[in-house]
Amino acid sequence: MKLKTKVIALLALASSALVIPANAAVTFTAGDLILAVRSATEGKTYMVNLGAATGYRDATADITNIVNIDTDLDANFANWETRGDVYWSLFGVRAQPLDDGVVAGDPGQTIYVSRAQTTLGTQRAPFTAPNSTNHGNAATNMSGVQVQFLNGTPTGLPNATVLTDAQTNYDATATATWAAFTASGGTIASNASGIDNTALDLFRSLGTTAGASPTGTLRVGSYEGTFHISDLGVVGYSVAPAFAAIPEPSRALLLGLGAVGFIFRRRRTAVQA
Prior knowledge:
The protein is α+β, with helices and mostly antiparallel strands.
């Protein structure tokens, strides 16, 4: 359970000067990775741009604090941490055309897609597209959602938006959403009871190996790393399936304040003696 204290609120207020203005435009570059949170109950999808997917592909160390989406999630999905009807997923595509050239080692139709860990800390088997048609259809669908993302209105974060069911065809809970990956079974989204204590493995799937670096098996996902969200909304990434939980800032702060109080008490006692 989250510890929402006045001290945390004051610290957040003090650091607000470092936050980018809320009305900055939503931006997107081909090949960026989008994190999406979806609930059919509210009838909307929250999306935030995590930056170039190749940055996670090439990461050699864990990234513990990519972005904090707690405020946005609280505003759109009450009790999102433990609700069984709130799902999250990751997706991205370099370009829909297969012959669009190679950028940062990714040819056209290089797809990034998530799959939920069944056992926390244990990597899932990758999705496999059965043929080039299905893989191309997935690239087309993802490209379409990226356009819808660009048309969204920013939230308090400059690169995040909320789209209603009427605005987007995205549905993370449906296995048919991306077409290419239905043969492997399951969905690209988390499937546990809520987001807390879930993790998504990220896979890279190539529509062509021509010019790909690193290369791989055609249309078979290669494991790139694992994403997780703490119950305080901090998005993190690990280069291995197992990851260390992100400590709660509120708990760490309270421990720190307790230590300061103990030191002050000892000094005061010494002076009185």
